[in-house]
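Below is how a single chain appears once it has passed through the pipeline. First comes the sequence as given, then the structure the pipeline wrote out for it. We keep one example in the README because the format questions we get most often are answered faster by looking than by reading.
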Amino acid sequence: MKKTKKVKSTGRFGSRYGVGIRKRVAKVEERQNKKAVCPFCKFKKIKRKAAGLFECKKCGAEFTGGAYESETLIGKTIKKMVTQKSFAASAAELVKETEKSSYSDIEAEVSKSMNEDDEVVEEVAEKPKKKTVKKTTKKSVKKVAKKEKKVKEEEE
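Resulting structure:
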């Protein structure tokens, strides 16, 4: 009897279970049985103990990974990012960008206006704060904006 190349390891199922399921099983088993390298000793003999748990046959190190692979695609990219020196520089840039966000600009404007109107700040500080939590909706935001306009008009 001649073996076929198409069905690979799922030939044992014969014509049962459907083509789609057998193809998926073939892909999973191919990844699962692929030779992988130990991240600690670089030896190319790793045994899968359970889903996500792997053990090196040489050094005996146990480590986690994907369900069927010792190292997932996301894990590889994160490892590369951490080991590259450019990652630290880009992380510093991200922190600077978050500090320059529009929210911090608004805070700066508010603090400037508060320094100009010290009397208003003292009045606000004296009022007791309510501990009730209200849901913010578009209508409630519009109402607050209208109230603030009225207060500004009265002050002028």
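Residues 117-122 have pLDDT under 50 and may be disordered.

See the next section for the split statistics.
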